[in-house]
Automatic annotation (TrEMBL):
Protein name: HTTM domain-containing protein
Record domain HTTM-like: where: 25-370
Endpoints of the signal sequence: none
One of the record's GO cellular component terms: endomembrane system
Bilayer topology annotation: Multi-pass membrane protein
Key word Ribonucleoprotein present: no
Segments crossing the lipid bilayer: 90-108, 140-161, 182-201, 207-226, 238-265, 306-326, 333-361
Protein backbone atom coordinates (compact mmCIF):
# COMPACT_ATOMS: atom_id res chain seq x y z
CA UNK A 1 0.00 0.00 0.00
CA UNK A 2 2.80 2.41 0.86
CA UNK A 3 4.34 1.83 -2.56
CA UNK A 4 1.08 2.47 -4.39
CA UNK A 5 0.71 5.99 -3.03
CA UNK A 6 3.96 7.35 -4.56
CA UNK A 7 3.22 5.48 -7.81
CA UNK A 8 -0.25 7.03 -8.01
CA UNK A 9 1.13 10.48 -7.18
CA UNK A 10 3.78 10.23 -9.87
CA UNK A 11 1.27 9.00 -12.44
CA UNK A 12 -1.08 11.85 -11.58
CA UNK A 13 1.77 14.34 -11.77
CA UNK A 14 2.78 13.07 -15.22
CA UNK A 15 -0.81 13.31 -16.45
CA UNK A 16 -1.15 16.86 -15.18
CA UNK A 17 2.18 17.82 -16.77
CA UNK A 18 1.14 16.36 -20.12
CA UNK A 19 -2.18 18.18 -19.93
CA UNK A 20 -0.56 21.51 -19.11
CA UNK A 21 1.98 21.00 -21.88
CA UNK A 22 -0.70 20.23 -24.42
CA UNK A 23 -2.81 23.25 -23.48
CA UNK A 24 0.13 25.67 -23.50
CA UNK A 25 2.09 24.32 -26.46
CA UNK A 26 -0.74 23.72 -28.92
CA UNK A 27 -3.79 25.61 -30.18
CA UNK A 28 -6.27 22.74 -30.03
CA UNK A 29 -9.00 22.05 -32.55
CA UNK A 30 -7.69 23.97 -35.59
CA UNK A 31 -10.22 22.32 -37.91
CA UNK A 32 -13.09 22.80 -35.48
CA UNK A 33 -12.40 26.51 -35.00
CA UNK A 34 -11.95 26.92 -38.76
CA UNK A 35 -15.32 25.35 -39.54
CA UNK A 36 -16.96 27.46 -36.82
CA UNK A 37 -15.38 30.56 -38.37
CA UNK A 38 -16.57 29.60 -41.83
CA UNK A 39 -20.04 28.64 -40.61
CA UNK A 40 -20.82 31.81 -38.69
CA UNK A 41 -19.23 34.20 -41.18
CA UNK A 42 -21.18 32.50 -44.01
CA UNK A 43 -24.42 32.72 -41.99
CA UNK A 44 -23.92 36.43 -41.33
CA UNK A 45 -22.83 37.17 -44.89
CA UNK A 46 -25.78 35.35 -46.47
CA UNK A 47 -28.19 37.08 -44.10
CA UNK A 48 -26.87 40.54 -44.93
CA UNK A 49 -26.94 39.83 -48.67
CA UNK A 50 -30.46 38.41 -48.58
CA UNK A 51 -31.74 41.36 -46.55
CA UNK A 52 -29.85 43.96 -48.57
CA UNK A 53 -33.05 45.22 -50.27
CA UNK A 54 -34.71 45.43 -46.82
CA UNK A 55 -31.77 46.84 -44.89
CA UNK A 56 -33.52 50.17 -44.30
CA UNK A 57 -36.48 48.51 -42.58
CA UNK A 58 -34.21 46.32 -40.48
CA UNK A 59 -31.46 48.67 -39.32
CA UNK A 60 -31.85 51.98 -41.16
CA UNK A 61 -32.31 55.34 -39.42
CA UNK A 62 -35.88 55.59 -40.76
CA UNK A 63 -36.90 52.00 -40.02
CA UNK A 64 -39.86 50.94 -37.84
CA UNK A 65 -37.55 50.79 -34.84
CA UNK A 66 -36.77 54.47 -35.06
CA UNK A 67 -33.60 56.30 -34.19
CA UNK A 68 -35.14 57.80 -31.02
CA UNK A 69 -36.38 54.43 -29.77
CA UNK A 70 -32.97 52.88 -30.38
CA UNK A 71 -31.28 55.73 -28.52
CA UNK A 72 -33.56 55.26 -25.52
CA UNK A 73 -32.99 51.52 -25.38
CA UNK A 74 -29.20 51.78 -25.75
CA UNK A 75 -29.09 54.44 -23.05
CA UNK A 76 -30.71 51.89 -20.72
CA UNK A 77 -28.83 48.71 -21.62
CA UNK A 78 -25.47 50.27 -22.59
CA UNK A 79 -25.14 48.13 -25.73
CA UNK A 80 -22.36 48.90 -28.20
CA UNK A 81 -23.22 49.93 -31.76
CA UNK A 82 -21.42 52.29 -34.12
CA UNK A 83 -24.68 52.89 -36.00
CA UNK A 84 -25.74 55.26 -33.22
CA UNK A 85 -22.74 57.48 -33.86
CA UNK A 86 -24.64 59.26 -36.60
CA UNK A 87 -28.16 59.31 -38.05
CA UNK A 88 -26.74 59.95 -41.52
CA UNK A 89 -27.88 57.66 -44.31
CA UNK A 90 -24.33 57.63 -45.68
CA UNK A 91 -22.98 56.39 -42.36
CA UNK A 92 -25.55 53.59 -42.22
CA UNK A 93 -24.72 52.44 -45.75
CA UNK A 94 -21.00 52.52 -44.98
CA UNK A 95 -21.38 50.43 -41.82
CA UNK A 96 -23.61 47.90 -43.60
CA UNK A 97 -21.17 47.49 -46.49
CA UNK A 98 -18.23 47.14 -44.10
CA UNK A 99 -20.14 44.47 -42.17
CA UNK A 100 -20.64 42.56 -45.43
CA UNK A 101 -16.95 42.96 -46.30
CA UNK A 102 -15.83 41.79 -42.84
CA UNK A 103 -18.03 38.70 -43.14
CA UNK A 104 -16.55 37.87 -46.54
CA UNK A 105 -12.95 38.36 -45.42
CA UNK A 106 -13.45 36.26 -42.30
CA UNK A 107 -15.02 33.54 -44.43
CA UNK A 108 -11.91 33.53 -46.62
CA UNK A 109 -9.60 33.71 -43.61
CA UNK A 110 -7.78 36.90 -44.60
CA UNK A 111 -5.98 38.58 -41.68
CA UNK A 112 -8.22 36.74 -39.26
CA UNK A 113 -6.79 38.40 -36.15
CA UNK A 114 -7.90 41.82 -37.35
CA UNK A 115 -10.95 40.88 -39.39
CA UNK A 116 -12.46 38.88 -36.52
CA UNK A 117 -12.56 42.10 -34.49
CA UNK A 118 -14.17 43.99 -37.38
CA UNK A 119 -16.63 41.12 -37.81
CA UNK A 120 -17.56 41.38 -34.14
CA UNK A 121 -18.03 45.15 -34.43
CA UNK A 122 -20.30 44.69 -37.46
CA UNK A 123 -22.43 42.03 -35.78
CA UNK A 124 -22.82 44.00 -32.55
CA UNK A 125 -23.49 47.27 -34.36
CA UNK A 126 -26.32 45.98 -36.53
CA UNK A 127 -27.92 43.63 -34.02
CA UNK A 128 -27.82 46.11 -31.11
CA UNK A 129 -29.34 48.77 -33.35
CA UNK A 130 -32.55 46.73 -33.76
CA UNK A 131 -32.65 43.89 -31.25
CA UNK A 132 -36.15 42.73 -32.25
CA UNK A 133 -35.23 41.71 -35.79
CA UNK A 134 -33.79 38.26 -35.07
CA UNK A 135 -35.19 34.73 -35.04
CA UNK A 136 -33.07 33.16 -32.28
CA UNK A 137 -30.04 32.44 -34.40
CA UNK A 138 -28.97 36.06 -34.00
CA UNK A 139 -28.35 35.46 -30.28
CA UNK A 140 -26.00 32.58 -31.05
CA UNK A 141 -24.21 34.63 -33.72
CA UNK A 142 -23.96 37.53 -31.28
CA UNK A 143 -22.13 35.40 -28.71
CA UNK A 144 -19.94 33.50 -31.15
CA UNK A 145 -18.72 36.71 -32.79
CA UNK A 146 -17.27 37.65 -29.39
CA UNK A 147 -15.65 34.27 -28.80
CA UNK A 148 -14.10 34.02 -32.27
CA UNK A 149 -11.96 37.09 -31.56
CA UNK A 150 -9.98 35.08 -29.00
CA UNK A 151 -9.42 32.00 -31.17
CA UNK A 152 -6.77 31.19 -33.75
CA UNK A 153 -9.45 30.36 -36.26
CA UNK A 154 -7.26 30.77 -39.35
CA UNK A 155 -4.76 27.96 -38.78
CA UNK A 156 -6.25 25.90 -41.62
CA UNK A 157 -8.64 26.49 -44.54
CA UNK A 158 -7.76 30.18 -44.81
CA UNK A 159 -5.74 32.62 -46.87
CA UNK A 160 -3.62 33.19 -43.77
CA UNK A 161 -2.68 29.51 -43.69
CA UNK A 162 -1.79 29.58 -47.38
CA UNK A 163 0.40 32.64 -46.87
CA UNK A 164 2.14 30.95 -43.94
CA UNK A 165 2.65 27.80 -46.01
CA UNK A 166 4.29 29.79 -48.81
CA UNK A 167 6.54 31.54 -46.28
CA UNK A 168 7.63 28.18 -44.87
CA UNK A 169 8.37 26.91 -48.37
CA UNK A 170 10.56 29.93 -49.15
CA UNK A 171 12.43 29.58 -45.86
CA UNK A 172 12.94 25.84 -46.47
CA UNK A 173 14.62 26.70 -49.78
CA UNK A 174 16.95 29.12 -48.01
CA UNK A 175 15.15 32.30 -49.05
CA UNK A 176 13.69 35.08 -46.95
CA UNK A 177 9.90 35.39 -46.57
CA UNK A 178 8.27 38.34 -48.26
CA UNK A 179 7.95 41.34 -45.92
CA UNK A 180 4.50 41.93 -44.50
CA UNK A 181 3.39 45.39 -45.63
CA UNK A 182 -0.37 44.95 -45.41
CA UNK A 183 -0.40 44.15 -41.68
CA UNK A 184 1.27 47.35 -40.45
CA UNK A 185 -0.77 49.51 -42.83
CA UNK A 186 -4.00 47.92 -41.62
CA UNK A 187 -2.89 48.35 -38.02
CA UNK A 188 -2.12 52.05 -38.50
CA UNK A 189 -5.41 52.73 -40.32
CA UNK A 190 -7.45 51.08 -37.59
CA UNK A 191 -5.51 52.96 -34.92
CA UNK A 192 -6.27 56.27 -36.63
CA UNK A 193 -9.95 55.39 -36.90
CA UNK A 194 -10.09 54.37 -33.25
CA UNK A 195 -8.35 57.57 -32.19
CA UNK A 196 -10.77 59.59 -34.32
CA UNK A 197 -13.77 57.88 -32.71
CA UNK A 198 -12.48 58.65 -29.23
CA UNK A 199 -11.63 62.25 -30.15
CA UNK A 200 -15.15 62.75 -31.50
CA UNK A 201 -16.62 61.45 -28.24
CA UNK A 202 -18.30 58.46 -29.86
CA UNK A 203 -16.93 55.95 -27.32
CA UNK A 204 -17.86 57.82 -24.16
CA UNK A 205 -20.84 55.59 -23.29
CA UNK A 206 -19.21 52.53 -21.73
CA UNK A 207 -15.65 53.13 -20.46
CA UNK A 208 -14.77 49.46 -21.02
CA UNK A 209 -15.33 49.65 -24.78
CA UNK A 210 -12.36 51.94 -25.63
CA UNK A 211 -10.16 50.04 -23.17
CA UNK A 212 -10.98 46.71 -24.85
CA UNK A 213 -10.55 48.08 -28.38
CA UNK A 214 -7.25 49.80 -27.54
CA UNK A 215 -6.07 46.63 -25.81
CA UNK A 216 -6.79 44.55 -28.90
CA UNK A 217 -5.05 47.11 -31.08
CA UNK A 218 -1.94 47.12 -28.92
CA UNK A 219 -1.83 43.32 -28.77
CA UNK A 220 -1.94 43.22 -32.56
CA UNK A 221 1.05 45.53 -32.79
CA UNK A 222 3.10 43.68 -30.19
CA UNK A 223 2.32 40.35 -31.86
CA UNK A 224 3.45 41.62 -35.26
CA UNK A 225 6.75 42.94 -33.86
CA UNK A 226 7.59 39.80 -31.86
CA UNK A 227 6.17 37.08 -34.15
CA UNK A 228 7.75 38.18 -37.43
CA UNK A 229 9.51 35.46 -39.45
CA UNK A 230 13.00 34.90 -38.15
CA UNK A 231 12.18 36.32 -34.73
CA UNK A 232 12.42 34.00 -31.76
CA UNK A 233 13.54 33.94 -28.19
CA UNK A 234 11.60 34.17 -24.97
CA UNK A 235 9.15 36.93 -26.05
CA UNK A 236 7.98 34.84 -28.98
CA UNK A 237 7.67 31.73 -26.80
CA UNK A 238 5.73 33.67 -24.16
CA UNK A 239 3.32 35.09 -26.73
CA UNK A 240 2.77 31.63 -28.20
CA UNK A 241 1.94 30.23 -24.76
CA UNK A 242 -0.46 33.06 -23.96
CA UNK A 243 -2.06 32.81 -27.40
CA UNK A 244 -2.55 29.06 -27.02
CA UNK A 245 -4.07 29.48 -23.57
CA UNK A 246 -6.49 32.15 -24.78
CA UNK A 247 -7.41 30.11 -27.86
CA UNK A 248 -8.03 26.93 -25.89
CA UNK A 249 -10.05 28.78 -23.27
CA UNK A 250 -12.21 30.38 -25.97
CA UNK A 251 -12.68 27.01 -27.66
CA UNK A 252 -13.82 25.53 -24.35
CA UNK A 253 -16.26 28.42 -23.89
CA UNK A 254 -17.71 27.85 -27.37
CA UNK A 255 -18.26 24.18 -26.58
CA UNK A 256 -19.74 24.98 -23.17
CA UNK A 257 -22.03 27.60 -24.71
CA UNK A 258 -23.39 25.08 -27.22
CA UNK A 259 -24.03 22.57 -24.44
CA UNK A 260 -25.69 25.25 -22.32
CA UNK A 261 -28.00 26.24 -25.17
CA UNK A 262 -29.21 22.69 -25.67
CA UNK A 263 -29.42 21.85 -21.97
CA UNK A 264 -31.45 24.93 -21.04
CA UNK A 265 -33.71 24.56 -24.07
CA UNK A 266 -34.33 20.88 -23.35
CA UNK A 267 -35.04 21.24 -19.65
CA UNK A 268 -37.26 24.27 -20.30
CA UNK A 269 -39.31 22.22 -22.78
CA UNK A 270 -39.77 19.43 -20.25
CA UNK A 271 -41.43 21.85 -17.82
CA UNK A 272 -43.95 23.16 -20.39
CA UNK A 273 -47.27 21.46 -21.18
CA UNK A 274 -47.08 22.47 -24.85
CA UNK A 275 -44.10 20.20 -25.40
CA UNK A 276 -45.78 17.42 -23.49
CA UNK A 277 -48.95 17.39 -25.58
CA UNK A 278 -47.30 18.23 -28.93
CA UNK A 279 -48.91 21.61 -29.53
CA UNK A 280 -45.49 23.34 -29.58
CA UNK A 281 -44.77 21.53 -32.86
CA UNK A 282 -48.31 21.30 -34.24
CA UNK A 283 -49.37 24.96 -34.11
CA UNK A 284 -46.30 26.54 -35.79
CA UNK A 285 -46.89 24.25 -38.77
CA UNK A 286 -50.24 26.00 -39.30
CA UNK A 287 -48.92 29.57 -39.08
CA UNK A 288 -48.41 31.33 -42.40
CA UNK A 289 -45.17 32.89 -41.18
CA UNK A 290 -43.66 29.46 -40.52
CA UNK A 291 -45.12 27.70 -43.55
CA UNK A 292 -43.10 28.50 -46.68
CA UNK A 293 -44.22 25.12 -48.06
CA UNK A 294 -47.86 24.71 -46.89
CA UNK A 295 -48.23 21.26 -48.47
CA UNK A 296 -45.17 19.98 -46.59
CA UNK A 297 -46.36 21.51 -43.32
CA UNK A 298 -49.83 19.96 -43.74
CA UNK A 299 -48.26 16.60 -44.49
CA UNK A 300 -46.23 16.63 -41.29
CA UNK A 301 -48.97 17.98 -39.04
CA UNK A 302 -51.58 15.54 -40.37
CA UNK A 303 -49.74 12.61 -38.81
CA UNK A 304 -50.06 12.38 -35.04
CA UNK A 305 -47.23 9.87 -34.93
CA UNK A 306 -44.91 12.24 -36.78
CA UNK A 307 -45.77 15.13 -34.45
CA UNK A 308 -45.15 12.91 -31.42
CA UNK A 309 -41.81 11.68 -32.72
CA UNK A 310 -40.61 15.20 -33.54
CA UNK A 311 -41.80 16.58 -30.21
CA UNK A 312 -40.34 13.96 -27.90
CA UNK A 313 -37.31 13.37 -30.11
CA UNK A 314 -36.36 17.06 -29.96
CA UNK A 315 -36.64 17.17 -26.18
CA UNK A 316 -34.72 13.92 -25.70
CA UNK A 317 -31.89 14.94 -28.01
CA UNK A 318 -31.45 18.37 -26.43
CA UNK A 319 -31.46 17.05 -22.87
CA UNK A 320 -29.15 14.13 -23.64
CA UNK A 321 -26.58 15.87 -25.84
CA UNK A 322 -24.33 17.36 -23.10
CA UNK A 323 -24.06 13.92 -21.46
CA UNK A 324 -23.13 12.17 -24.72
CA UNK A 325 -19.85 14.09 -24.94
CA UNK A 326 -18.31 11.38 -22.76
CA UNK A 327 -18.97 8.77 -25.45
CA UNK A 328 -17.57 9.60 -28.87
CA UNK A 329 -19.73 7.25 -30.92
CA UNK A 330 -23.01 8.25 -29.29
CA UNK A 331 -22.02 11.91 -29.56
CA UNK A 332 -21.35 11.65 -33.28
CA UNK A 333 -24.67 9.90 -33.91
CA UNK A 334 -26.60 12.48 -31.89
CA UNK A 335 -24.69 15.28 -33.59
CA UNK A 336 -25.79 14.01 -37.02
CA UNK A 337 -29.39 13.81 -35.77
CA UNK A 338 -29.32 17.40 -34.47
CA UNK A 339 -27.82 18.78 -37.67
CA UNK A 340 -30.43 16.94 -39.70
CA UNK A 341 -33.14 18.34 -37.47
CA UNK A 342 -31.88 21.88 -37.99
CA UNK A 343 -31.80 21.32 -41.75
CA UNK A 344 -35.43 20.17 -41.60
CA UNK A 345 -36.34 23.26 -39.57
CA UNK A 346 -34.71 25.44 -42.22
CA UNK A 347 -36.88 23.92 -44.95
CA UNK A 348 -40.17 23.24 -43.18
CA UNK A 349 -40.39 26.33 -40.93
CA UNK A 350 -38.48 28.72 -43.22
CA UNK A 351 -35.75 29.56 -40.67
CA UNK A 352 -32.56 29.08 -42.70
CA UNK A 353 -30.31 31.43 -40.77
CA UNK A 354 -31.35 30.13 -37.38
CA UNK A 355 -30.58 26.62 -38.60
CA UNK A 356 -27.25 27.66 -40.15
CA UNK A 357 -26.20 29.33 -36.89
CA UNK A 358 -27.05 26.24 -34.85
CA UNK A 359 -25.32 23.90 -37.32
CA UNK A 360 -22.22 26.11 -37.16
CA UNK A 361 -22.30 25.90 -33.35
CA UNK A 362 -22.72 22.12 -33.51
CA UNK A 363 -19.73 21.86 -35.87
CA UNK A 364 -17.31 22.51 -33.01
CA UNK A 365 -17.97 18.91 -31.89
CA UNK A 366 -17.28 17.31 -35.28
CA UNK A 367 -14.41 14.79 -35.22
CA UNK A 368 -11.12 15.87 -36.73
CA UNK A 369 -10.93 12.82 -39.00
CA UNK A 370 -14.26 13.73 -40.60
CA UNK A 371 -13.21 17.35 -41.11
CA UNK A 372 -9.95 16.27 -42.72
CA UNK A 373 -11.81 14.00 -45.13
CA UNK A 374 -14.17 16.87 -45.85
CA UNK A 375 -11.23 19.15 -46.63
CA UNK A 376 -9.69 16.51 -48.89
CA UNK A 377 -13.01 16.12 -50.72
CA UNK A 378 -13.31 19.87 -51.26
CA UNK A 379 -9.71 19.99 -52.56
CA UNK A 380 -10.40 17.17 -55.04
CA UNK A 381 -13.62 18.83 -56.17
CA UNK A 382 -11.69 22.04 -56.74
CA UNK A 383 -9.13 20.18 -58.87
CA UNK A 384 -11.88 18.67 -61.03
CA UNK A 385 -13.59 22.05 -61.38
CA UNK A 386 -10.39 23.79 -62.43
CA UNK A 387 -9.61 20.98 -64.86
CA UNK A 388 -12.78 21.80 -66.78
CA UNK A 389 -11.83 25.45 -67.22
CA UNK A 390 -9.91 26.70 -70.27
CA UNK A 391 -6.16 26.39 -69.87
CA UNK A 392 -5.58 30.13 -69.90
CA UNK A 393 -8.11 30.57 -67.06
CA UNK A 394 -6.23 28.40 -64.60
CA UNK A 395 -2.68 29.16 -63.56
CA UNK A 396 -0.90 26.22 -61.97
CA UNK A 397 -4.03 24.67 -60.39
CA UNK A 398 -2.23 21.45 -59.57
CA UNK A 399 0.26 23.24 -57.35
CA UNK A 400 -2.39 25.16 -55.42
CA UNK A 401 -4.69 22.17 -55.12
CA UNK A 402 -1.91 19.97 -53.81
CA UNK A 403 -1.10 22.68 -51.28
CA UNK A 404 -4.72 22.74 -50.16
CA UNK A 405 -4.73 18.97 -49.82
CA UNK A 406 -1.50 19.06 -47.81
CA UNK A 407 -3.01 21.72 -45.57
CA UNK A 408 -6.07 19.60 -44.83
CA UNK A 409 -3.80 16.71 -43.87
CA UNK A 410 -1.76 18.66 -41.31
CA UNK A 411 -1.66 17.03 -37.91
CA UNK A 412 -3.98 18.64 -35.38
CA UNK A 413 -1.20 19.19 -32.91
CA UNK A 414 1.02 21.01 -35.42
CA UNK A 415 1.44 24.71 -34.68
CA UNK A 416 1.79 26.81 -37.84
CA UNK A 417 4.27 29.68 -37.63
CA UNK A 418 2.83 33.15 -37.47
CA UNK A 419 3.47 35.51 -40.35
CA UNK A 420 2.54 39.08 -39.64
CA UNK A 421 -1.05 39.26 -38.52
CA UNK A 422 -2.02 35.69 -39.40
CA UNK A 423 -3.98 33.65 -36.90
Amino acid sequence: MTRLVPETARSLSRSVSRGIGRVTETALGPYQTAVVRIGFSATWLLFLLREFPHRQELYGPDGPWSWDLAQQLIADNGAFTVLMWSSSQVWFELVYVLAVLAGLLLLLGWRTRTVSVLFMVGVLSLQNRSIFMGDGGDNVLHLMSLYLVFTRCGQVWSLDARRARKARARMALGGDPAPDRVGPVLWVVLGVLLLGGIAAGKLDGDPLVPVILWGMWLVQGVWWVVARPGQGGEPRTLLDIVGNLVHNAALFVIMAEACLIYATAGWYKIQGSRWQDGTAVYYPLHLDYFSPWPALSDLMSSSGTMVMLVTYGTVAVQVAFPFTLFNRRVKNILLAVMMTEHAVIAVVLGLPFFSLAMIAADAVFLPTSFLRRLGDGVARARVRLLARLPRNARAAPDQEASGAADESAVDETAQPPHVGFTA
